[in-house]
Amino acid sequence: MQITLKNLNRNYGTLHAVSGISLDIPSNKIFGIIGRSGAGKSTLVRLVSLLEKPDSGEVWYDDQRVDNLSEKELILQRRRLGMIFQNFNLFSSRNAGENVAYPMEICGKDKETISKRVKELLELVELGDRIDAPISTLSGGQKQRVAIARALACEPDILFCDEATSALDPQTTRAILKLIREIQKKMNLTVVMITHQMEVVRDSCDYVTVLSEGSVVETGTVKEIFSKPKSEVTKDFLAHLTTADQDKDSTVHWSKVPGRYTLRFAAGNTDTPIISRLTKEFDVEFNIRGGGVQKVGEDEYGTLICDITGEDEAVKKTISKLKRHKITVEETL
Ligand SMILES: Nc1ncnc2c1ncn2[C@@H]1O[C@H](COP(=O)(O)OP(=O)(O)OP(=O)(O)O)[C@@H](O)[C@H]1O
Ligand SMILES: [Mg+2]
Questions:
Q1: What does the alpha-carbon distance between residue 331 and residue 333 come to, in Å, rounded to a whole number?
Q2: Which atom of ligand 1 is nearest to the CA of 35?
């Protein structure tokens, strides 16, 4: 299911929570929406998932306009959507299996179908043996797995994840993201992934849009955004990424001082000895403090953490020449 947003606006009093957002969210992909707290992510997701109506603008699912549906149509359409949240929103009065059964009861499925499907879904999220477990006895990661199974119960076209991993530790986060990726492929789902963490975007998304103050700052494939971030907001998100993922970030630090610049370059960029040329050309020095490889989806990027010293003007020229060689330069201090 493809989602198209046309000039969406949502105000709360004088506050423009969502302001002129137009986006194409492609079918059968994982689409990330990243932004700081208050950027408007949850508001946007409420509009896209038809929980709230925009003040103006349009929401389309494939060729159907859905922001102006009647109450009855809305209920039916919303059954085609799955949602998971940071705080899981499970019923504590129901056990794991009964939570997964709930949406199917609402849809009026018969008991036998429900019980078969509950088993299948809990097996899919690797909790086949915890069907009778009270919710209070499950870990955070397990609760989110139950929530995922419940979200998938009525075979949705779209899965919305609003900060679904924000309450989980990094290892559990990776396991949940891996599960979401597997399910997305298996079920041909369109996934909308709301987050404030670049790690989540890197480890799960195909596309990402960056939100700031209710508006889109930039949108692209994760590969594009990581290798050529345009806006300051995006660069700031990326600058805080380097040491986050122990498995995939193999940066080696051979200095305790952090280094002022982080250079990022895509594999197979060039055979030119750029750094030694720049040293000669502008009479600057590179003091390398760390370096390694970072994996973004299937692609690998080299990173080099360094200081560049010399005359101010020479350092500026060095940086702009690095950028011309398609190397991203982020200032880390
Ligand atoms: N129902 C509401 N009534 C009034 N103001 C609201 C309402 N919902 C959101 N806002 C305001 O709209 C802005 C965007 O909020 P939103 O919850 O969409 O941000 P967010 O990006 O999801 O933030 P977070 O990362 O903290 O969840 C905030 O300033 C918030 O206070
Ligand atoms: Mg939010």
A1: 6
A2: 21
- pLDDT band at residue 329 under the 50/70/90 scheme: confident
Supply the pLDDT for residue 68: 94
**Mean pLDDT for all residues in the chain:** 90
Ligand 1 midpoint to CA 162 (Å): 13
- For residue 136, pLDDT over 50 is answered with yes
- Using most ligand atoms within 8 A of CB, pick from 10, 34, 42, 51 the residue to mutate for ligand 1: 42
pLDDT digits (tens, 9 = 90+) for 86-115: 999 999 999 999 999 999 999 899 999 999
Chain-centroid distance of CA 166 in Å reads 11
DSSP string, 118-155: HHHHHHHTT-GGGTT-BGGGS-HHHHHHHHHHHHHTT-
The pLDDT of 44-57, averaged and rounded, is: 96
Closest-lying ligand to the alpha carbon of 46?
1
pLDDT score of 239: 77
List of residues 6+ apart from 192 with CB closer than 8 A: 3, 25, 31, 33, 45, 48, 49, 158, 159, 160, 161
Q: What does residue 48 show for φ and ψ, rounded to 5 degrees?
A: -70, -30
- Ligand with the closest atom to the CA of 211: 1
Structure tokens at 20: 């002129």
Question: Position 250: which residue type?
Answer: S
Domains annotated on the chain, with CATH: 3-229 (3.40.50.300), 252-331 (3.30.70.260)
CA-nearest residue for atom 11, ligand 1, is 17
